[in-house]
Amino acid sequence: MRVLGIDLGSREVKIVLMEDNKIIQKKKVSTMSFYRNYCNYDGKIVVDLDKLDINQVDKAVSTGYGKNNTDLSLFSPINEIKAHVYGGFYQTDLKDFILLDVGGQDVKVVKVEKGITTDLELNEKCAASCGRYLENMANVLEVSLDDMSRHHENPIELNSTCAVFSESELIGKIAEGVSIESLCASVNYSLYKRLQPLLCKFKGKKLVLTGGVANNYAIKYFLEKDYDEIVAIKEPQFNGAIGCCYYGSTFL
Asked: Distance between CA atoms of 140 and 159, rounded to whole angstroms?
């Protein structure tokens, strides 16, 4: 059986195709490019599978910001929490864990016990604790996200709690002569501090990181102080789409 999963994120669309519970195809495109180049409109947005070079799909499941816009005669929509939890099941074989997903514009923290979601916390109101914050700060510092993610030593205090005002604060620190390396560490530590209020109510030994921030070495370094184990998964950015496939093959 072939199951297609699509995670329609705010910045990127992640697409995974599974056959008999094995990933056989995956791709990632910008959200604008996806809607412009891979979709048609006929009352609802209809995904053109031929343009995606995907065929013989038995089931299709969607999640993310745009899940309710896709062609519902083909896609069964599920919420993002369910998609990411099932992606966690598939990629870790764990049934007890805390899942932290830091997306481009939101943060999700989910507690899973014995395979059941027992608690969750969401932040969809402020970009300062999301991936967009890191992108903006990397642009100000004129470094790549990969370069910035490597730095965790000697962070200084960044006081601004707003992603917009943080840019001005960072520019001021550059003018004061603070090193780029220290400022990169400061940005990473600042994001970690903003995640702490969401994470503090979730106790558990294993933390599963998903989303693009899962590739940030410094964030993982800081989080290691709070959990016994940071569980590395192979495809953190595709976790939602993988969860769609796994859920579709198991329950639909």
From this structure: 17
Show Cβ contacts of residue 91 under 8 Å, excluding neighbours closer than 6 positions. 208, 233, 234, 235, 239, 242
Q: What's this model's pTM, rounded to 2 decimal places?
A: 0.94
Phi (first) and psi of residue 27, to 5 degrees: -155, 160
Total residue count of the chain as it appears in this document: 252
Q: Are 131 and 213 in contact (CB under 8 A)?
A: yes
pLDDT band at 125; cut points 50, 70, 90: low
According to DSSP, residue 214 is labeled G
d(CA 236, CA 88): 9
Q: Reduced to 3 states, what is the DSSP secondary structure of residue 20?
A: coil
Q: Is the pLDDT of residue 81 over 90?
A: yes
Cα separation, 218 vs 233, whole angstroms: 17
Which tokens in the block code for residue 177? 């002569």
